[in-house]
Design a protein that fits this description.
alpha/beta, about 15% strand, 10 helices, two-stranded parallel sheet, 6-stranded parallel beta sheet, binds NADP nicotinamide-adenine-dinucleotide phosphate
């Protein structure tokens, strides 16, 4: 089986290439090979002659999307249309990687695959438009929503570890009213590997189980890395000025994957595995209260 992966050098694209390559031929379509901002994408993807396309490339800078919503639509929506048209022309299925940010974030429980979408920022709107175009153009597709990814070169875990080396004056300030599903890229890659063998097309939420606020995620990173001496102050989303406003509460529930036996471990376990990989795992031993 030959599989093309857009964004092959990105955080998730690299994990997908690693997970799939032992048994399949991977055609990497990194940014150097493919510029999503061009209708030429259709012919380029068709020329790959693959049996399946995984579309992981995207404009992922959410603040950049807020500053330039038209560019976000060009890359994340039109770019996805070109990839979908190529799949349609080749008659092959598409895996479209989407996001928790298609939801409004005002729920009181984790979002199921079939809950109403309602993006609140330009990034989310452009990714949802990508989902819609996939549904419009293709009969055979998997839409895989992921969230709060870690595992590559640039991510929240690495940022916290870096900040722990030289904390800003007053320590770290972390938002405690933005809640999501921290997710390890290799776990998503393994789940996608299993999913594409099922032909069970549809919409999936592949996130590690459980949820965390940015604040509790950061504190857990510091605890598992043995850096509890680093001071953390909890702040509110409203105190953290940035160009894009995230949906506040977007943990995702994996209903459709679980029905096929595809589940992802708790995020704390995945985080510990990642810290081991980075050589940063040194959990603080908390003293029993009686001592
Ligand atoms: N990161 C998260 O927490 C998160 C959360 C929810 C959903 N997602 C989704 O998951 C997928 C993978 O995310 P990720 O974290 O792996 O992102 P990433 O590390 O930023 O990788 C994205 C890849 O897309 C490429 N790309 C960007 N603009 C492009 C363009 N105009 N044409 C062609 N390629 C382009 C990038 O290449 P360059 O680096 O060379 O620009 C990069 O290799 C994306 O679809 C994203 O929307 C991510």
């Amino acid at each position: 089986m030959r599989i093309a992966i857009t964004g092959a050098n990105g955080q998730l694209g690299s994990a997908l290439s690693a997970a799939l390559s032992p048994k399949r031929t991977i055609v990497p379509l990194g940014h150097q090979q493919l510029e999503l901002d061009s209708p030429a994408v259709v012919e380029q993807v068709v020329a790959s002659g693959v049996d399946l396309v995984i579309h992981a490339a995207a404009m992922t800078n959410v603040d950049g999307c807020a500053r330039d919503p038209e560019q976000a639509y060009r890359i994340n929506s039109l770019g996805t249309k070109y990839v979908a048209l190529a799949c349609r022309s080749m008659g092959v299925p598409l895996v479209y990687i989407s996001t928790n940010e298609v939801f409004a974030g005002d729920n009181e429980r984790p979002y199921y695959e079939y809950d109403q979408t309602g993006p609140v920022n330009a990034y989310g709107r452009s990714k949802l438009a990508g989902e819609l175009v996939v549904r419009e153009l293709l009969d055979r597709f998997y839409i895989v929503r992921v969230a709060w990814l870690f595992g590559g070169a640039r991510n929240f875990v690495r940022t916290i570890l870096r900040l722990a080396e030289a904390p800003p004056d007053g320590g770290l300030r972390m938002v405690d009213d933005e809640v999501g599903s921290p997710t390890f890229c290799p776990d998503v890659a393994e789940a996608v590997t299993r999913l594409i063998a099922t032909d069970q097309y549809g919409t999936y939420h592949f996130v590690n189980s459980g949820s965390a606020s940015r604040d509790s995620f950061a504190r857990t990173i510091l605890r598992l890395a043995g850096r509890t001496e680093v001071a953390v102050t909890s702040i509110k989303l409203a105190d953290y000025r940035r160009d894009s406003v995230p949906p506040p509460y977007t943990p995702l529930a994996n209903l459709a994957g679980a029905a096929l036996g595809i589940t992802l471990r708790p995020w704390e376990e995945a985080l510990a595995a990642y810290l081991v990989e980075l050589g940063a795992y040194a959990p603080s031993i908390e003293r029993p209260l009686s001592l």
